[in-house]
Specification:
Largest sheet: 6 strands, mixed
Distance between the termini: 75 Å
Number of strands: 11
Shape: globular
Strand order of the largest sheet: 7-6-8-5-9-11
Radius of gyration: 22 Å
Oligomer: single chain
Structural class: alpha/beta
Helix content: 40-55%
Strand content: 15-25%
Length: about 325
């Protein structure tokens, strides 16, 4: 009997230890060689350490568990516990968030991450647009540019070209310039260029390495244009099922400061690749004149007006929303 009691106690202890460990499945669509993969791993390690090992991460890169545009639904439906989502891959679904992709608003990725977090989550918009998931982080890249197989120097040069846009807002912008948007997720952009489906892409410089674009696009317009701001989301049931102590661990890793921190490695990598491209004689990097910059900035007006119409249709005061967004950008020193 004594031996049976000892065995039962040991089994109970083992079961208790096992139940105290929760494995979170995180899915993203970037290649494992992408700088953001390393940042996501580091963020996950920080959560593991802060939880004392009660939370562990299983990270699945490169669309292993589903296509890039499906990651919001995958997270909402519990296919994954945590999803890395580009809201701009689903046009019209998140009209307020699409404001973050309008060109000439923010001039730095990490600082914009903090500002967008403050605007979107702390301002209550995340709960309204993404209330069926737990909103955690914002992750923009540094402002993206045009990269093409032939010069694009002014907005008129986009007319007649097929361009892979970063997201739905940039697709609208491309179309307003007389171009045709070829909407494919980032991992498929190189194929679009190499097969002749697209003439140009909008990307940060890092994509020249991360997605091996440098051998298919040789012309770069060096004017920073727009952000693509990904988000990290938790399945709501996953979050709700955690103990209060573990919820605090997650909350501590879902802050505006973390939105900035998790984006810094990507920013550094982007700046380094830009320097490599500038130094590579096989690439042509064009710096627009002041007059050409004015043309570019003026060319965005129809896109902003279209966003305002969408926001109004969704029941918002677009000027008030824009004012809140720009106030957050200014407070973080990142307004274009």
């Amino acid at each position: 009997m004594k031996r049976l009691l000892i065995l039962a106690a040991a089994l109970a202890a083992t079961t208790s230890a096992a139940s105290a460990e929760t494995t979170l499945r995180l899915s993203h669509w970037l290649p494992a060689t992408h700088p953001m993969h390393d940042s996501i791993v580091a963020w996950g390690k920080s959560i593991e350490e802060a939880s004392g090992g009660e939370l562990t991460m299983e990270i699945y890169p490169a669309q292993q568990l589903g296509a890039a545009p499906d990651h919001f639904d995958m997270t909402r439906d519990g296919i994954v516990d945590i999803g890395y989502v580009n809201p701009g891959y689903t046009a019209g679904r998140f009209p307020i968030y699409e404001l973050t992709g309008v060109p000439f608003e923010a001039n730095d990725g990490p600082k914009a991450g903090k500002a967008i977090h403050e605007f979107y989550k702390n301002g209550g918009y995340a709960e309204k647009e993404m209330g069926d998931v737990y909103f955690c982080l914002v992750n923009p890249h540094n402002p993206g540019r045009f990269h093409a197989n032939a010069p694009i120097k002014v907005p008129a040069d986009v007319k007649g070209k097929s361009v892979r846009p970063a997201h739905s807002t940039m697709a609208r912008y491309i179309n307003s310039l007389g171009g045709t948007s070829v909407q494919v997720p980032a991992p498929e952009a190189r194929d679009a260029i190499s097969k002749g489906t697209a003439d140009a892409v909008t990307f940060p410089y890092e994509a020249m390495k991360s997605f091996k674009m440098a051998d298919v696009v040789k012309f770069h317009n060096d004017l920073p244009l727009y952000l693509s701001s990904q988000v990290m989301l938790f399945n709501q049931n996953t979050y709700d099922g955690l103990t209060d102590a573990l919820k605090t661990v997650i909350d501590d890793h879902c802050t505006p400061e973390w939105s900035q921190k998790i984006s810094e490695g990507w920013s550094k990598y982007d700046n380094d690749v830009r320097q490599e491209i500038l130094a590579d004689p096989s690439h042509e990097v064009y710096e627009p004149t002041a007059e050409e910059v004015t043309l570019w900035r003026d060319s965005v007006k129809p896109t902003m007006e279209a966003w305002k119409a969408d926001a109004k249709k969704a029941g918002y005061d677009p000027d008030a929303v824009l004012g809140e967004y720009e106030k957050a950008l200014e407070a973080n020193g990142v307004k274009y």
